Amino acid sequence: RLRVAVLASGRGSNLQALIVARDAGQLPVDFALVGSDKANAGALQLAKDAGIPTFTLNPKDFANRRDFDLELFRQLDASGADVLVLAGFMRVIDGEALKPWVGRMINIHPSLLPKYRGLHTHRRALEAGDVEHGASVHYVTAELDGGPVIAQATIDIRPGDDELQLAQRLLSFEHQLLPAVLRLIAEGRLSLLPPDRVALDGEPQDAPLQ
Ligand code: GAR
ipTM value of the model? Predict the structure, then answer.
C-alpha cells in the first residue's frame, strides 16, 4: 500500500476526510506521519486520535526557511512516505528543499487555479464578481500554487454569498476531491510525474513569508 505523509497547519478537515475515506475502505493507503508547523493545529489531534504518528517543527527554532524545510523533509523521508499531501499547510516551501519531492507531493488549494494563488481566495473570487469558484489539487513545484493541476471541483457562487459561506460550501467539495485524487495515485491510475518534467516549471521562489 502507498505510504502517505500529510502536512497541515490548521483544523485538519481535509486530513480527516482522508482518514474517513481510508477507514471506509475507499482509500488504500497507510498514513506514515502527519507534520505541522503549529503545535496547536487541530490536524495533529485528529491524527493522534487515528493512531498516526505526528511531529511539530517550530519555524522560530530555525535560522531560515531552508533549514526549516530541510529538517521537515528529513523527517518525512525517515517516515518512509512515498507521497506527501499538503492539506492546509500554510507555508511557502523552499524551492531547493522540495526538489526531491517534486512529482510526489500534492497540494489542495481553494481556488480554480491558475486564478487566485496565495491567500484569501474566497474573498478575491467574490470581489472579482466571479460566478464560479472551486478547489484544485496540483503537484507542488517551486512556484507557489503554480504546479500542474491534476483535478478541480467547481461550484456556483450564489447571490448573497459571503466569504465564510463560500469557504464552507467549497470545503465539502474539497473533502471529496482530495481523497479522490489520492485514490487515483494509490491505485496506480494517475502517474506521478517524473521530477524533471515538472521541475522545469518553476524557478526557485523567493516569495514573502506567509
Ligand atoms: C482548505 O480550504 C485548503 O484548501 C486551504 O486551507 C484549508 C484547510 O482546511 N489551503 C490553502 O489555502 C493552501 N494555500 P483544513 O485544515 O480544515 O483542511
Answer: 0.99
